[in-house]
Amino acid sequence: MRRKILTIAMAACVSLSMLAGCGKTKTDTEVSSAVSAGDVEEAVSAGDVEEAVSAGDSEEADILDKDRAGNDITVPENVSAIISMSPSVTEVLIDLGCADKVVACDTYSGTSPFATALTEDIPQFDMMTPDSESIIALNPDVVITTGMSYAGGEDVYAAVRDAGICVADIPSSASVEDIKKDIAFIGALVGADSDAQELISKMEETEKVLAEKSAEIADKKKVLYVMSVPTADYPDVYTCGKGTYMDEVFAMAGCINIAGDIDYQWPAMSEEDIIAADPDVIIVGDTYTENPVDAIMNIAQWKDITAIKNCAVYTIDGDAFNQPDHYVMNSACDIAKSVYPEEFEDLENPFN
Known about the structure:
Helices cover 34% and strands 11% of the residues. With 352 residues, it is α/β, with parallel strands linked by helices. It has 2 domains: 2-202, Rossmann fold (3-Layer(aba) Sandwich), CATH 3.40.50.1980; 207-339, Rossmann fold, CATH 3.40.50. The strands form 4 sheets. A 5-stranded parallel sheet has the order 5-4-3-6-7. It has a 4-stranded parallel sheet with strand order 10-8-12-13. It is globular and about 60 Å long.
């Protein structure tokens, strides 16, 4: 049970987009019916994106007056102390060369593989119930939040704002293009515009290579993405549907996502649905099941699925894929090489 909740919680980091930041909060939230209350929030519109932080617009990005949720913010002239409350944001900050500026982070960031790049033993806060008093005591220049923190409909950073600290919200993006804008925004926020543009350029170079090679694939394969290996107690498979960057990534890799036509971002597919769709390949992002490939291959009811008969079941780093940052391009490459090993044998991951 704990494994299932943890997996879904990571998916929630991907899907939740309740908006809150410095100033008036905008919300348009709908609780997902796919899981029990509190486990996963349905992704919602992130509102209008400020043109000032669009990729490549570094001149205008020098002055920020709104966060990615569209809320008014006042950014200090020098940002040298940052609290990051999102793993994807923390990872971007590290790759922008700002690891030493992160004075505290969320618990997911603190236990991630990339945490070794952060200053040792910095404070960690629960993104759902952050300790405002301790955050204020650290006197950060900016606190960068995720929509996950507002799942209960409450502004858990109100006291931090009242203390005069800038709180900038970055709702979890539903498209690769918005991920680029997130990176550009973070770069502008911390004074690393050119470094942010380098990350974005690498993403775009990889997109171009994937697009060129994928266009040459005539017979595209149907793929099922499994976030969490189904069990007798939880037989449904949580996957990615329409309107997600994950669905876009599968398309980049030349694949047909069997859930891509489902008008729901994070659907739970039944055993019957999966058997009827008959995927050619199964990609597993479960990080909590021991030997997930064996677990999938041994589902008796799936024995006649093409992917099972052909032993076409592969794993990718689910943690990396679940976090909306530049590393999703590594996931795109890993998927492409697994599904089409010959066509993409020379493809290299852009971020190592």
